Amino acid sequence: MKPTVQSYFDTQTCTATHIVFDAPGGHAAVIDPVLNYEPKSGRTTTRSADQVLEFLAANSLTLQWLLETHAHADHLSAARYLQEKAGGQIAIGEKITEVQKVFKSLFNLDAEFPVDGRQFDVLFVADATFFIGELPALALYVPGHTPADMAYVIGDCIFVGDTLFMPDVGSARCDFPGGDASQLYGSIQKLLSFPPETRLFLCHDYPPAGREACTHTTVARQKAENIHVRDGVSEADFVALRQKRDSGLEMPYLLIPAIQVNIRAGALPEQEDNGIRYLKIPLNAL
């Protein structure tokens, strides 16, 4: 079956959120939803997520899944908000537990904060299969950017998360805890082994001047044009390029707030006794 995909692009975080569904009036999955966050004021809004809800309602879609490709460092997840409004199960790869352990320590979270992934409804193992209504889907393990990355294969589409960007932008960084450029190369080759016409839906686009943001490309274009990992680029060359680039990259703008929310499956920290929720900033630790 060929799924239908509706994508929205958040210009503040350069993030693409995808709605994939079997048919109008059928079932849908939302992949990598965005909770809008203003770092100067510490305020969240649901503008991007409300677009998703409007589309679901307009097409009489039942929200079955909220799929995270990984614990994002560049935007806050709206998965919990969407679940509260429209239902569905929040899912991520099982190795989110490794990411939770690292950041529980960094942020010195409460001893009671669980690092077994229970904040999520479903933890996918590699090659787990599931359905979105009538659409069969596969959770493809693609580590390298982080140790917990999953891509979702649905019909002729793959939702690749942060493994690949548009061909003129390249590939994801590998300098986060547990990241590994050699693993990412292997994960990308796994994605590029699919048929040339396979549609690759991206989590981000950072378009150069003169090009509008894009939300998807194809296996064929990546193999022919990707500036980091097109056909003919060896693993050794890719690893050397990736490590050199990563050594000069700045910290993602929203990493500190995003990770604290995203390891909680999009839930905000609990209110304190004054009724306010707080995020932590580790000083001189990153």
Task: Summarize the structure in words.
The chain has helices at residues 47-58, 79-86, 96-106, 181-192, 219-225, 235-246, 255-262; strands at 4-10, 15-21, 27-31, 34-38, 43-45, 62-67, 76-77, 89-93, 122-124, 128-132, 135-141, 150-154, 157-159, 199-201, 216-218. It is α/β, with parallel strands linked by helices and 286 residues long. The protein contains 7 helices and 15 strands. It has a 6-stranded mixed β-sheet, with helices on one face. Helices cover 24% and strands 24% of the residues. α1 (47-58) packs parallel to α2 (79-86) and α4 crosses α6.
Number of strands: 15
- End-to-end distance: 46 Å
The main β sheet shows up as: 6 strands, mixed
Query: What structural class results from the helix and strand content?
Result: alpha/beta
As an assembly, this protein is single chain
- Order of secondary-structure elements: EEEEEHEEHEHEEEEEHEEHHH
The low-confidence parts are none
